Amino acid sequence: MRTTITVNGEARSLDLDPRTTLLDALREQLGLTGSKKGCDHGQCGACTVLVNGVRINACLSLAVMHEGDAVTTIEGVGAPERLHPLQKAFLEEDAFQCGYCTPGQICSALGMLAEIEANWPSQETADLTGRVAFTEAEIRERMSGNICRCTAYPQIVEAIKAYAGERA
Amino acid sequence: MRPFTYERAESPEAAVKAAAETPNAKFIAGGTNLLDLMKLDIERPSHLIDVGRLPLSGIEETGEGGLRIGAMASNSAVAADERVRARYPVLAQAIVAGGSPQLRNKASVAGNLMQRTRCAYFYDTSKPCNKREPGAGCGALEGLNRNSAILGASHACIATHASDMAVALAALDATVETLSPSGQARSFPMLELHRLPAERPELDTHLIPGELITAVVLPPPPPGGQVYRKVRDRASFAAGLASVAVAGGQVALGMVAHKPWRAVAAEEALASGATAEEAMSAELAAATDNGKNGFKIALTGRLGAAAIDEAGRGR
């Protein structure tokens, strides 16, 4: 099936078997191997990408369902010569060991910060009718869809806090 | 995944027409549960009808003081809606207790209702499961049934319904609106959507094949406090062992039965002056223990009593 998806700002026309997940289309057809395949069942978050600015698991979505969508992968977030400030924060805070989950963590964190800005609640949000507080408990809860087998969680939280603090 | 064909429906009417005309077709919206099950060869549709972009994602006032939530609204959008948070906090709390943010961003309201059980025997294709393969037997009955049903189960199936959102909808007396394959619209109480397993555990709901959920309608909130509480093995992103939704004097239990369980006996006991603890005991009098899930009876009793008391304090 012919499907056109805007990936990292560029319209890409793909000829797809309907079974192709968004993750496989990105990795296998477009060569964007930054998004990782961990569990392939939506449990680890390594495949997290932003679709129209919203974070989703690319492994649990068919590429043909994304006709006309704008997808941002880690390659669109930053590159070695022009790191995104959140990527720099991950380096400075030592927020990874093996690095396999990192692209998903970073895309997820960017989506998460936009969700807090839009005042979306989480189960840590005590007052559903007020402003969401930017606390460590909120960050941890909201990042629970991203697993880090090296257990860099404390540093991941620090990196997100450092980036968000700088931006504020 | 097995091969399948795909089409994007242009309208709800076109979607049900396509479903009626195509053998072994399924609707797909978010796809977070269906694609997972297709990868595991548990769901095997030969045609997918994408309903995710149908104009059914709005949340609007009903005129009776309630809200009509479009079936394609994402779980996140419903939980974030200011009216839901102010008037139906139990629903917002239930939604954010389920899945991960990434899943909630993709999953639709209708898809949440239509999600399949998380029973380990349903997921493991090397094990017998009457829900996956009618007549194969139930491996959970005498197997790893720690998280199996304690209410309303049958000798054919002790699987539970895993949704958090549906438990809140059950407590809130929500109505489901659908479009049938013949193009007929109908609406009925959400509590009549899901069924108990009895002899046909392969059927999760009373929907007719090819019927499309188009909306969930909330009546005005009942007077009184609202609370959703859930117990699970991890603090976040895990299927529940038990949950309870309280909305005023209305109580529903989750993850303890094949469907969201309205605790009618507990409600009646509360109405006649029983304590929360007594009310939960009345509800769980008929609960069954299959060997490893017995702890869920005590757990659900305590959880329910705590939530009822908490909601009462919020009144």
Description:
The complex is a heterodimer of chains A (168) and B (315). With 168 residues, chain A is α+β, with helices and mostly antiparallel strands. Chain A contains six helices and five strands, in the order ββαβββααααα. Chain A has helices at 22-29, 74-77, 85-92, 102-117, 136-142, 153-167, and strands at residues 2-7, 10-15, 48-51, 54-57, 70-72. A five-stranded mixed beta sheet of chain A has the order 2-1-5-3-4, sandwiched between helices. Chain A is globular. Chain A starts with a strand and ends with a helix. In chain A, 45% of the residues are buried. Chain B is of the alpha+beta class. Chain B has two domains: 5-49, Uridine Diphospho-n-acetylenolpyruvylglucosamine Reductase, domain 2; 59-114 and 160-313, 2-Layer Sandwich (Uridine Diphospho-n-acetylenolpyruvylglucosamine Reductase, domain 3). Chain B has a five-stranded antiparallel beta sheet. In chain B, strands 9-10-11-12 form a four-stranded antiparallel beta sheet, with helices on both faces. Chain B has a three-stranded parallel beta sheet with strand order 1-3-2, with helices on one face. In chain B, helix 5 runs antiparallel to helix 9 and helix 10 runs antiparallel to helix 11. Chain A binds chain B through residues 1, 17-19, 21, 40-42, 45, 48, 54-57, 60-62, 64-65, 67, 108, 111-112, 115, 118-123, 125, 128-129, 140-142, 144-145, and chain B through 1, 3-6, 8, 28, 30-32, 35-36, 39, 48, 50, 52, 76, 79-80, 82, 85-86, 89, 92-93, 96-97, 99-103, 105-106, 235-237.
